Amino acid sequence: MRKTRAKKRPLLPDPKFGDTMVTRFVNSLMYSGGKQKAYKLFYDAIEIVQKRTEQDGLETWRKALTNVMPNVEVRSRRVGGATFQIPQEIRAERKVALGIKWLVGYSRDRNEKSMAAKLAAEIVAAAKEEGSAFKKKEDTHRMAEANKAYSHFRF
Fold first, then answer.
1. Cβ neighbourhood burial of 152 (10 Å; 0-12, 13-18, 19+)
2. Which of 19, 104, 106, 127 is the most exposed, fewest CB within 10 Å of its CB?
3. d(CA 77, CA 87)
4. Alpha helices (H) along the chain
């Protein structure tokens, strides 16, 4: 690497809860700069979660995000002409990024009517440790466990 690393830009906290993690989630939720629309969508989803679970919606979302974040992943490494899947620990930043990406992605694939309902359903499912996003985390961990024998090839 010749150039210096790009500096992390500070995120502004969201208007309702004052949380930068919410802003980060909303940024990955929005399409082509529709941030207000994405915020509305997120807040609606949190309200739906609150009605469905009778608990604090934001806390349920945080729990869901924590449940979806993976701890290990496999990365490809070429050793002597063969490619091995090597399990590695994940940095904290990447954990959060993957968790958000999976929650948003799998909520888009659901069958509910509105995006807010889809997101709310995926959040509730992830908080209960079920649903597609949680299954993805489990699959990632299973893959790392299966390839534990190659962990001595770590780079």
1. exposed
2. 19
3. 10
4. 20-29, 35-53, 57-68, 92-108, 115-127, 132-146
Q: Between 79 and 122, whose confidence is greater?
A: 122
- What's the rounded mean pLDDT across residues 135-152? 88
Residue 59 and residue 75: Cα distance in Å, rounded? 32
Amino acid, res. 32: S
What is the CATH number that goes with domain 20-153? 1.10.455.10
Using DSSP, state whether 77 is helix, strand or coil. Answer: strand
State how far the Cα of 37 lies from the Cα of 146, in Å rounded to an integer. 42
Please give the Cα distance from 89 to 32 (Å, whole number).
Answer: 33
- Closest among 14, 15, 32 to 23, alpha carbons compared: 14
Contact 137, 63 (CB under 8 A): no
